[in-house]
């Protein structure tokens, strides 16, 4: 199957790209610049495309992102510390982000004769992000089939939608993903902060998967405290 992967440059989507390249025909990586403060992730997506030998499409959505105000990822709002499963992390929601990106990616896939669009949404995202949940992905695929009816037959590939981030680390390791060449931190500093939700979730996932984490964190031990606080809540 010819598959296009939406790739942010993060651990999940780069692992997905390597898995698709091993199991299917990876045709291209598509990334979106929506004005996120951690836009450095896009350099990691481009590097993944070069490593896997496929075209890289960087799509400029900054004018759209500027209108999607109120998120810590696109507005002048501090990214909170703590685990993803905490209510405070809702401030990192960019409304309708995945729906917008997927719609564009389906158009790119249809225009290029690709058979599926792959995205790395996973079970750990469900609490916070509504456009990462199985109900959304099923409905979106149905909508896209209607939108492209008679023109192209493109499906939505979400192999991690009911799985954990630790499962993604396991799959990534199995397919040779260079984890050090991925970027997750929402704060976009010189190194991963180790304190924001995505850093905590990343560090915990390596621990649960039993895979060595090559990531350099400014605060490498904060995740233990964050996980303990979540479990006590």
Report the β-strand fraction as a percent range.
5-15%
Structural class: alpha/beta
Give the overall shape. globular
- The helix content is 40-55%
CATH architecture: 3-Layer(aba) Sandwich
CATH class, named Alpha Beta
Task: Summarize model confidence as the mean pLDDT.
Answer: 89
Q: Give the CATH topology.
A: Rossmann fold
How far do the termini sit from each other? Answer: 44 Å
Biggest sheet details: 5 strands, parallel
Low-confidence stretches: none
Total count of strands: 5
Number of domains: 1
Run of helices and strands: EHEHEHHEHEHHH
Radius of gyration: 17 Å
Count of alpha/pi helices: 8
What is the topology, as strand order, of the major beta sheet? Answer: 3-2-1-4-5
Commentary on this structure:
This protein has 233 residues and is α/β, with parallel strands linked by helices. It has a single domain (2-232), classed as Rossmann fold. It has helices at residues 11-23, 41-52, 62-67, 97-112, 134-147, 165-174, 197-209, 222-232; strands spanning 2-6, 25-33, 56-60, 116-118, 155-157. Strands 3-2-1-4-5 form a five-stranded parallel β-sheet, sandwiched between helices. Helix 1 (11-23) crosses helix 6 (165-174), helix 6 (165-174) crosses helix 7 and helix 7 (197-209) packs across helix 8 (222-232). ATP binds at residues 7-17. One of its GO terms (biological process) is tRNA queuosine(34) biosynthetic process. Catalyzes the ATP-dependent conversion of 7-carboxy-7-deazaguanine (CDG) to 7-cyano-7-deazaguanine (preQ(0)). InterPro entries: QueC, Rossmann-like_a/b/a_fold.
